[in-house]
Amino acid sequence: MEEQVLLTMRDITKTFPGVVALDHAQLTLRKGEVHALMGENGAGKSTIIKCLTGVYERDAGEVRMEGVEGSIYNHSTQEAQRIGIATVYQEVNLCPNLSIAENLFIGREPRTMIHTVDWKTMNRRAQKIMDNLEIHVDATATLETCSIAIQQMVAIARAVDMDCKLLILDEPTSSLDDKEVAKLFKLMRTLRDSGVGIVFVTHFLEQVYEVCDRITVMRNGQFVGEYSVSELPRVKLVAAMLGKDFDDLASIKPEGRVSVSDEVVLDAEHLSHKGTIKPFDFRIRKGEVVGVTGLLGSGRSEMVRCIYGADKAQSGTERMMGKTLKANSPIDSIKAGMGFLPDDRKADGCIGDLSVRENIILALQARDGMFKRIPRTKQAEMADHFIDLLQIKTASRETPLNQLSGGNQQKVILARWLCTHPDFLILDEPTRGIDIGTKTEFQKLVLQFAAEGMSIVFISSEIEEMLRTCTRMCVMRDGEKVGEIQGSMTQESVMSAIAGGEKK
Ligand SMILES: Nc1ncnc2c1ncn2[C@@H]1O[C@H](COP(=O)(O)OP(=O)(O)OP(=O)(O)O)[C@@H](O)[C@H]1O
Ligand SMILES: [Mg+2]
Questions:
Q1: Which residues form ligand 1's pocket by a CB distance below 6 Å?
Q2: pTM for the whole thing?
């Protein structure tokens, strides 16, 4: 039986000043399938989606959708919605100060006889939608009081409720934990079975194999190929994405690392933060890479925020290379040689209007003081170095940050901290949204910095990634450091420690 084609995009071209974002790209979606759109950072995934949904106008190419006469040109997202295309973007774009119910019904609020908003009906219907999706929240709650995960689910719920024929999810899972991902996948399967076509953008390979039926791979704005998931083994997929064979992943192993010295770089005793984290000790030696693991919300981020001084420690003492640190003073920490890449990068100052160069030198400039301007040539040199090292895809070093793809923005923020070359660097989810090739390069870099004597704390939701880089891991559960594991760590041993190993 020939499956029914829902959407055909052919020969799509889109250029920005100095950048060819899409070069004769194509995408074909069938009814009732989950279709993965894969490719490196900057490959053009978000752009092809935005050409479909009316955020961008394409320069050339044809878009056809089942049930719609002729080639479609959406000039606005509303138009796209009208023909049944719903989108959840990489960045949640809802109104934080409105309630969940209001966000669900923006632009299509139920009305009373006299055309005022029918709040009662709206709230009741909103609650029903959330309950049906098994999302346990009060629909009248203000959106900004909800976790990022819930906000994401609200965005999806809104799309689902609009009876869409085509649902687009651009990296929806990067800030969800395993349980939430499972919930989302269940929802995706239900929708698929009812005939909805779903485009799913993700950098997590396992997720592709778990939930997708077919894959389109893009590279440098071009179409590479379309495959059925069952016919495309992982190595082939990665090779298609990178355009070369890829056996590097296997070659990075913690074995053969330089041995760690005895010199203690940071020594924290009995630190705690009221309400979020119980007293813990933490010690790291020169050249050590230590992981912090635990479920989302277990206190991983809170622990490192406390060490860095972003959250005021309620108790305990902290010394860095013998010198006592002031609690609650990130500047003191930075001056002592600490660096901190937080997991909430949006809030941390991904400054969109500033150039790539200005964003990269920001932390270094802050450390040295605003009066000691880094010379322009030096700035340019550093920016170019990191653009090259992290393979940041940008038209130039002077390009405003917000013109870069999501993953490339992330790399810039990472470069910002790497260029301060701290003695002790805390990385909270540094590779979120970063493609697999760069992830591997990044892991190598972590090991290289450690070999040069940098001490690093590395938090990642992907245990694999920590296993490749860390010699030791702290295990967090419910705001408490419940133990440390080291030696021959495996995915299983780490998982069982997270789930509830012995308290030490
Ligand atoms: N508004 C814009 N102005 C200029 N260039 C842009 C703009 N939006 C995207 N680009 C460029 O187009 C290319 C493709 O970007 P796109 O966001 O589609 O990548 P992506 O595949 O979604 O990557 P990621 O995995 O990092 O999200 C990039 O080189 C990017 O710099
Ligand atoms: Mg993108």
A1: 16, 19, 21, 39, 41-47, 393, 403-408, 435
A2: 0.79
